[in-house]
Design a protein that fits this description.
The structure holds two protein chains of two kinds.
Chain A: H1 8-78, H2 91-94, E1 98-104, H3 113-125, E2 129-134, E3 139-144, E4 150-156, H4 157-160, E5 175-181, E6 184-189, E7 197-205, E8 214-222, H5 228-303, H6 309-336, E9 347-350, H7 351-361, H8 363-368, E10 374-376, E11 383-386, H9 388-406, E12 416-423, E13 432-439, H10 467-477, E14 481-486, E15 492-499
Helix pairs in contact in A: 1-5, 5-6, 7-9, 9-10
Chain B: E1 8-12, H1 16-27, E2 32-36, H2 39-45, E3 52-57, H3 65-74, E4 81-85, H4 90-99, E5 103-106, H5 111-143, H6 147-157, H7 162-169, H8 173-186, H9 192-206
Parallel strand pairs in B: 1-2, 1-3, 3-4, 4-5
Helix pairs in contact in B: 3-4, 6-8, 6-9, 7-8
The chains are: A alpha+beta, B alpha/beta.
């Protein structure tokens, strides 16, 4: 990476910031969208509640004012006698909104000219008419013309409102309700108006022509009334979801990178090995060339008649010297590639776990070849004393060998059995834990069997012949033994026996 | 043009022990060896007129044997080249032969294989040299002919008799006979067959 970017660290930081910026952007987008939907829903909900309340208010007030028409009509019909105990004077006791009842007998004019004018209108319209209105004070007068006596009511709006049926709590409700007429207004409930936000309005005539008041309801929704807690919860939920997704992606990326690194490591190792082999070939070939040429020259010189002894001697001396040189090269190489013979510490390892691990690592290889490994003797766990990394490498190599062998037979005949067992009584001297790998590949030719663990012996054309040799070295190092034999009717069986871990 | 007593083998290898031992081995069959440690010095200085062959190691510091081979071919060096390598790949072998290597041998090399390859190479080089030498001689002789003699030679090569040649050139058969005698003398041809074999190509070359 550093090679790709001259200023690796800064570039990495920039990369990180860019990546997080995208995530933050996505978070902002989702949060804003969600908040918008939540706010819209809340506003719609508030509006619906408001309109329901306003309609109820309109209905209640309409029902009440219609009663006033009915009272007047009853008076006009009954025409109670004009005496001190006239029954209409008892009306205010029945209807608290009626402050007083006035009457005008025939021939007597109204004391108030507004009542006079209203009566004329009432006569014309054949219904009660509004004589005067003082809405801020909550007073108005209603007149119905009739014969012989006409009647008028003085009304108190404060008492018109049916508080017991009122859909809102008048003191705390944010809704302002008013009755309006010709620029005047009677405030039924003050509500809370003002502030930046949204305004809902309801405007409708009372359902009584005689009392042409408008019911006006207003509701201001301020910003702070939005469901901020819900929105915050949404934002947090989005953040949590994105964080989870991010973590998931990161984990997947890490796993992919680890796999890639593993693969690269293998390639690099192979390249190194190739380079090593090429260098070794050259370093050893040079003295060998000289040795061969010198000895063959000497043979020819000795065969001459007469033999050229001096030159032949020189050739032999040179050959000896070059043979030593070849030996030196080998010695140098051996010192350079020191095998870590110093034994690594041994640990108690459950054989089954290590095998499962190796199988997990090789899952793609198994799948590619359509091989379903069978595990036998999974219980009880076989706990052995081993060097964990070395053991894993042995098992990995054995599995790879088996897979390569299985490749040579038709897919339907591929079987791979991994069996775990104890040898000897656990706890007794020399008791061992045994792993047996059996494949149904082509098997091992009888003549190849004794040489199987020799370095550079391979039955594969492209094989280096180091795999099993390495396995044996590793096994011996941890006091284990590795053996191979033929499996009838066809296939190979590899057997790894390890010392048991003492409980 | 020097005429050495025996063929000269140029041995190019950076390893002293290899040079010494191969030199000794090649010397046992009576070939002379000139060993070169530095391929660049070899390219600059070796005797291009000598009869013999070149033995070239592929892996040398500074310059690859294959590159040296390509340079030699580019300079129209006549000596056949035998490549030696410690670990030859098919690709390397293919490249060497494509570049004009006469032989490609792996180290450590067996004496018989190397010596046989060298003797083949020397024989091939001698033949090449003879062919080129004969060619050069023929050109020198051909240059001595007069215009009319060349015309007569062309018609002789075409298979015409003296009479037909005289008719074609509007001269008497006797004159043709004179030209013919001069021409055989100048070209040092012992027979008509020899004359045609040595000079037919040159006549074709001269004809438009």
């Amino acid at each position: 990476m550093a090679a790709l970017w001259p200023n690796g660290h800064n570039a990495l930081m920039l990369h990180r910031v860019r990546r997080y910026r995208l995530w933050i952007l996505v978070w902002c987008g989702f949060t804003a969208l969600g908040a918008l939907l939540i706010a819209r829903q809340e506003l719609a909900h508030l509006r619906e509640a408001f309109e329901t309340d306003a309609r109820i208010v309109h209905r209640l007030l309409s029902q009440r004012v219609v009663q006033h028409d009915a009272v007047l009509a009853t008076l006009a019909l009954l025409q109670p006698p004009a005496e001190a105990s006239s029954p209409e004077q008892r009306l205010p006791a029945l209807y608290p909104q009626i402050l007083s009842v006035q009457r005008r007998d025939r021939g007597v004019p109204w004391a108030d000219s507004r009542l006079q004018a209203a009566e004329a209108q009432s006569r014309q319209w054949q219904r009660p008419a509004l004589a005067s209105a003082d809405l801020p004070g909550g007073r108005y007068q209603l007149v119905l013309a009739s014969d012989p006596a006409s009647f008028a009511l003085r009304m108190d709006l404060h008492a018109v409102v049916p508080w017991n049926e009122w859909p809102m709590t008048p003191d705390t409700s944010p809704v302002r309700v008013a009755l309006e007429h010709e620029g005047q207004a009677f405030v039924v409930q003050p509500g809370r108006l003002g502030g930046h936000g949204w305004r809902f309005a309801f405007h409708k005539h009372l359902a009584a022509d005689s009392q042409p008041f408008d019911v006006v309801a207003l509701r201001d929704v301020a910003w702070h009334e939005l469901p901020w807690i819900v929105m915050l919860a949404w934002a947090l939920a989005v953040a949590a979801a994105l964080a989870g997704l991010h973590a998931l992606l990161r984990q997947r990326e890490r796993r992919q990178r680890a796999e890639e690194l593993l693969r690269l490591g293998q390639v690099a190792r192979l390249n190194t090995l190739g380079e090593l082999a090429a260098g070794m070939a050259h370093e050893i070939n040079q003295p060998l060339t000289a040795v061969l040429a010198n000895t063959q020259a000497a043979q020819r010189l000795l065969g001459d008649d007469p033999p050229e002894l001096d030159t032949a001697r020189l050739a032999m001396a040179q050959a000896t010297e070059q043979a030593r040189r070849a030996a030196d090269v080998v010695g140098r190489l051996r010192r350079a590639v020191t095998r870590p013979d110093a034994a690594a510490p041994l640990h108690a390892v459950v054989l089954q776990d290590t095998v499962r691990n190796a199988l997990h690592l090789l899952a793609p290889e198994l799948e590619r070849r359509g091989v379903q490994p069978e595990l036998q003797g999974v219980n009880p766990p076989v706990q052995v004393l081993a060097e964990p990394v070395g053991l894993e490498q042995i098992i990995h190599n054995l599995l790879m060998n088996a897979l390569q062998a299985l490749e040579q037979v038709p897919a339907s005949e591929r079987r791979l059995v991994l069996a775990f067992s104890h040898e000897g009584t656990p706890g007794a001297q020399g008791a061992r834990g045994v792993l047996t790998l059996t494949d149904t590949g082509p098997g091992i030719a009888p003549e190849a069997l004794p040489r199987l663990f020799e370095p550079f012996f391979s039955t594969r054309a492209d094989g280096l012949g180091l795999g099993l040799s390495l396995c044996e070295t590793l096994a011996n190092r941890m006091g284990a033994s590795l053996s191979a034999d033929h499996h009838s009717p066809r296939g190979a069986r590899l057997r790894l026996a390890l010392p048991l871990a003492t409980a | 043009m020097s005429t050495p007593l025996s063929p000269l083998i140029h041995l190019v290898d950076d390893d002293e022990a290899v040079r010494a031992s191969l030199g000794l081995l090649i010397g046992t069959v009576g070939l002379r060896v000139q060993a070169w440690a530095d391929p660049l010095a070899f390219i600059a200085q070796f005797d291009r007129d000598s009869i013999g062959a070149i033995v070239l190691d592929v892996r040398m510091p500074g310059i690859s044997g294959l590159t040296v081979l390509e340079q030699l071919v580019a300079q129209r060096v006549e000596q056949p080249v035998i490549m030696l390598t410690g670990h030859g790949t098919v690709e390397m072998c293919r490249r060497a032969f494509k570049s004009g290597a006469a032989e490609f041998l792996e180290k450590p090399v067996n004496d018989e294989a190397l010596l046989e390859a060298l003797q083949n190479a020397v024989r091939q080089h001698v033949k090449t040299r003879e062919r080129l030498g004969a060619d050069r001689q023929a050109r020198e002789h051909y240059a001595q002919l007069s215009e009319r003699e060349r015309e007569v030679l062309g018609l002789i090569v075409s298979g015409l008799t003296n009479k037909e040649i005289g008719r074609a050139l509007a001269v008497s058969p006797r004159t043709v006979e004179t030209h013919r005698a001069n021409l055989f003398a100048k070209l040092e041809a012992p027979s008509l067959a020899q004359l045609i074999r040595s000079y037919a190509a040159l006549v074709d070359e001269a004809a438009p």
